[in-house]
Write a structure and sequence with these properties.
The protein has five helices and twelve strands. The chain is an alpha/beta fold. A five-stranded parallel β-sheet has the order 3-10-4-5-6. A three-stranded antiparallel β-sheet has the order 7-8-9, with no helix packed on it. Strands 1-12 form a two-stranded parallel sheet.
């Protein structure tokens, strides 16, 4: 506000909900607040985290984030169970074939893939999952649980500045969580529109 800008472009991103909410089950997963539950970004940036011997990675997005978490865990000799409600492993990566290379690498270790499954509950040393098309449940050992689910926009600054500057534009994940390419495109178009 001290700069008295003509235009402000807000690109503050998004943050993980961290509660395990999944597209097919839009309510928080019981146990998502336990200390061994984390997000992919926190997992990859906290080198002091104790991982244990087993992990469950929940992927409700289908892009590279969950793959990165699984590869990180597998590289540390953690047995990984990859659970996704999607019909295949990281389907948004199909065009790049990175999902196939990742699967080849992951299957060299102790890796299990459960597609078409949802995470029902998290307990201190295991999780409960079930296929989307049946009520049958299964317990999966998990010393670490990584939740890769839809994010929520970080738009506090936008809300604070709205009405206080002549023109304000909300772009990228702050507008709606999607991909990096979407954010770059929207930022580019927002600035080009000013010229």
């Amino acid at each position: 506000l001290a700069e008295k800008p003509d235009v402000v472009v807000i690109a503050t991103g998004a943050q993980s909900r961290g509660n395990g909410t999944q597209a097919m089950f839009p309510q928080p997963v019981p146990g998502s607040d336990l200390p061994h539950v984390t997000t992919a970004s926190d997992l990859l940036t906290d080198s002091t985290r104790q991982l244990g011997h087993t992990a469950l990675v929940l992927d409700d997005i289908g892009h590279y984030e969950a793959i990165a978490a699984a590869e990180y865990l597998a590289a540390r000799d953690v047995a990984v169970t990859f659970v996704t409600g999607l019909p295949s492993f990281a389907p948004k990566m199909n065009g790049t074939f990175r999902n196939e290379k990742a699967l080849q690498s992951l299957y060299r270790g102790n890796f299990r893939l459960l597609v078409g499954h949802s995470l029902i509950a998290i307990y201190p040393q295991h999780c409960v999952v079930r296929p989307l098309r049946t009520a049958r449940t299964e317990e999966i050992a998990a010393d670490t649980v990584v939740l890769v689910t839809q994010k929520t926009p970080v738009r506090n600054l936008y809300d604070e500045l709205r009405g206080q500057v002549p023109d304000i534009k909300l772009v990228g994940d702050a507008a709606s969580p999607r991909t990096l390419q979407d954010a770059i495109r929207e930022g580019h178009l927002a600035v080009r529109a000013l010229a």
